[in-house]
Amino acid sequence: MAHQGGEGHGVGVRVTFSETRRGASRAGERKPPREGETMNSAAAAHARGARKTAVATARPLSLCPASASCTTLVGGGARRRGGQHVVLHPPRASSSYSASSSSSPKKAGKKKKTAAKKDAVAVTPRDFEQRQKSVKGCDVLVEALVREGVDVVFAYPGGASMEIHQALTRQEGKITNVLCRHEQGEVFAAEGYAKVTGKVGVCIATSGPGATNLVTGIADAMLDSVPMVAITGQVPRRMIGTDAFQETPTIEITRPITKHNYLVMDVKDIPRVVSEAFYLARSGRPGPVLIDIPKDVQQQMLNASEIDVSLDPSRFLEYYNERLPEPPRKGLLLDVARAIANAKKPMLYVGGGCVDASEELAEFVELTGIPVAQTLMGLGSFSEMHPLSLQMLGMHGTIYANYAIDNCDLLLAFGVRFDDRVTGKVKDFAPNASIVHIDIDAAEIGKNKAVDYSVCADMRESLKGLNKLFREKQVEMNAGAVQKWTDEVLEQKKLKAMSFPEYEDAIAPQHAIKVLEEVTEGNAVISTGVGQHQMWAAQWYRFAEPRRWLTSGGLGSMGYGLPAALGAAAAFKAAGEKVTVVDIDGDGSFLMNVQELAAIKAEELDVKVMVINNQHLGMVVQWEDRFYKANRAHTYLGLKDKEWHKSEEEVDIYPDFVKMSESYGIPARRVIHKAELRAAIEEMVNHEGPFLLDVMVPHIEHVLPMIPGGGGFKDTIADGDGSMFHEERPMKGL
Ligand SMILES: Cc1ncc(C[n+]2csc(CCOP(=O)(O)OP(=O)(O)O)c2C)c(N)n1
Ligand SMILES: [Mg+2]
């Protein structure tokens, strides 16, 4: 049974903390939740769908287990739609989490005795000894992480989480903690780890500021569908809702930006909650799950015999499981295959949902001969070296990719979400095409753009099914027409090839990235900040494989690059693999999490940093140039009256990233002249251990092509730079 929020306390509480607290201070009525209760957030677990829009699943979100201990919850805020509640947990007649098994030491002791007496004959002395062993909540937690196969966590301690850190030291050898220098660093690091491994990334923070520092990264993981479990300490249960020191309503804050979240109110729930959290984070459309654990629950003792290690994580998630997409139905795939076979100008638009289907996608392209455009999140899911790859589409996509979308008669939207940075004006996106949309999240289908065929299923399974139909010739392509179409598109690829201005002495940012691709032979893992450098990295570093590209797509979080690279490097170190990891960063973005240089040095992680240093918030400058008559509004990052781009005096460069890096014990150098660039990049890549290369570039450069926001293909801007908008040419050397 579900309860609407507003009841104040106890079973069924789903009032936001703030509401509750306001109530408490006014009426003095609020009581904290009782011991023995677990508050699971609404979950919406499924709820990626429900949270999205009313269009999607106008379903409400609540998780209302009928068992007494797993408290009923009702989704709040944006997630509550209509008056109906979705039950994710089926009733549990009896379980080890029953609230009747009180957690009070007195009662627990009584129960232990009874159990021991009853089982005395049935168990061996060893079993008996084992059952008598008590385990502290924090150890129960860390042991649960070990059972999930976690080898690396990113955790920063504080009062409400130090118990967990103490427990981590007791599992040294099994789990390594990488001590980032800021919680935002650790959450991005967990994303980097998850993206390169495909496993769930784990970050841990203390209550209050520790938890709120995770927020940006959690939202980032939500928008980019990154599997993550974030664990936060919380003030002791009896103090919840009292404005205690370092108390924040973490569950409430993170509810709309997590796939699901939990406030654990009883130590007994920890094993189940952890296994559910990992299951939820990685199943269906992946995403972040948060577990908030009050300090006294971390300190609570649990009889070892009560830890159920044989948990099937999905055991209590029946209704979530019911809503996971089933394998694609053959009839649906046949309809799609027939539409493909009838098409004269088919085009693939593939995204992050294809990252784990790259082999199947390659086979599909071989079988059908259809050209491929990729989203920012989909880069690497199809080799950009393949002749049929048109690289990235969208706002800063290639002209030929956008041309193909504009002219195709069938658009195969696979594992994508019709993001506005891809579509521009939705009505003008693929205006002549029928659309097939395959995606694992039902909420995405028809969300932004009406489609003609839809399959809600896993991309890999769907592609396998389609490939079988084409391989067995149950359907056959209109090969002649498709050949004509690909010839047309490949002609565009030649005519409108990507280019950039090469300067005599100054380093074009695109050139630096191209040289990096050459020196690393396209095999590096690349992370980025957000801005022009990010778009240039997407355009000029071509990926042949998935899981090599770490970038903040949906949220566009500056400061992502360095910690994400750190997380990737930690994953490779743990696996004993040697992979070159390069953070291509902007000077603005790099500064946002520069403190992680300390973590990189101290943890001996091999991260290279290539700062594309234009002394500006370049992407904003570009928009100022194009849309605000080049009026500079707080986008210059150097010192006033000492503009390097004007003086070309090295002393005017600010801040000094080389000195900064060296102060962290990481060797660095700066490169200003084109002739020195290749050797400098080689030095960086070949250096054993971390290295920073500060690459000075002109700030007049614009990311092109560009379709202005809300525009269509016909609005493409293909040339020009900042010098068109400035009275004087900013750099003498250009
Ligand atoms: C946390 C955050 N704050 C602000 C922005 C808005 N923003 C987008 S790009 C950009 C400029 C980034 O500058 P830099 O990192 O130097 O990259 P560049 O564009 O110069 O290559 C800004 C401020 C953002 N994306 N993220
Ligand atoms: Mg910059």
Mean pLDDT: 85
Shape: globular
* CATH architecture assignment name of the largest domain: 3-Layer(aba) Sandwich
Q: Note the gap between the termini.
A: 70 Å
- Oligomer category: single chain
Which stretches of 5+ consecutive residues score pLDDT under 50?
1-121
Q: Strands across the major sheet, in which order?
A: 3-1-10-11-9-8-6-7
Number of helices: 27
Number of domains: 3
Largest sheet: 8 strands, mixed
**CATH topology assignment of the largest domain:** Rossmann fold
> Which ligands occur here?
thiamine diphosphate, magnesium ion
Q: Helix share of residues?
A: 25-40%
- For the CA atoms, what is the radius of gyration? 27 Å
Give the CATH superfamily of the largest domain: Thiamin diphosphate (ThDP)-binding fold, Pyr/PP domains
Helix-strand layout with pairing:
Elements: H1 17-27, E1 38-40, H2 48-52, E2 62-63, E3 70-71, E4 73-74, H3 105-119, H4 125-132, E5 134-136, H5 137-147, E6 152-155, H6 162-169, E7 176-178, H7 183-197, E8 201-205, H8 209-223, E9 228-234, H9 250-254, E10 260-263, H10 270-282, E11 288-294, H11 295-299, E12 301-303, H12 318-322, H13 330-342, E13 346-350, H14 358-368, E14 372-374, E15 389-392, H15 399-407, E16 410-414, H16 420-423, E17 434-439, E18 453-456, H17 459-471, H18 479-495, H19 509-519, E19 525-528, H20 532-540, E20 549-550, H21 561-575, E21 581-586, H22 587-592, H23 596-602, E22 607-613, H24 618-627, H25 644-647, H26 657-663, E23 668-671, H27 677-686, E24 691-696
Parallel strand pairs: 1-3, 6-7, 6-8, 8-9, 9-11, 10-11, 13-14, 13-16, 14-15, 16-17, 17-18, 19-20, 19-21, 21-22, 22-24, 23-24
Antiparallel strand pairs: 1-10, 2-4, 5-12
Bound molecules: thiamine diphosphate and magnesium ion.
Magnesium ion binds at residues 531, 586-588, 614, 616-618.
